[in-house]
């Protein structure tokens, strides 16, 4: 049962570390995650817009050579 005591003390120590984490740093961490998610979504959106823009230009010009040969 010595193994059990080890896990108990380990979990208790981890919980104490977590509780000792300041609220400010917790909030900062969540904000960073939120910011990262926004940046990722913005980038996806930008690429989608860019693809549409390129297609429109391509159709308007009707010049197949513009973006290289198409099979």
Index terms:
2 helices; 71 residues; mainly alpha
Verbal overview:
The chain is built from 2 helices and no strands. It has helices at 2-20, 23-61. The chain starts with a helix and ends in a 10-residue tail after the last helix.
**What is the helical fraction, as a range of percent?**
over 70%
**C-alpha geometry:** elongated
Overall number of strands:
0
Average residue pLDDT: 76
The end-to-end distance, rounded to whole angstroms, is 70 Å
The tally of helices reads 2
Element-level helix/strand string: HH
User: Which regions contain 5 or more consecutive residues with pLDDT less than 50?
Assistant: none
Rg from C-alpha positions?
A: 26 Å
Major beta-sheet overview: none
- How would you classify the helix and strand content by structural class? mainly alpha
Strand content: under 5%
């Amino acid at each position: 049962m010595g193994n059990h005591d080890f896990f108990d003390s380990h979990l208790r120590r981890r919980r104490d570390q977590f509780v000792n984490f300041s609220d400010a740093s917790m909030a900062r961490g969540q904000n960073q995650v939120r910011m990262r998610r926004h940046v990722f979504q913005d980038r996806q959106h930008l690429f989608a817009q860019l693809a549409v823009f390129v297609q429109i230009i391509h159709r308007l010009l009707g010049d197949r050579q513009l973006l290289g040969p198409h099979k």
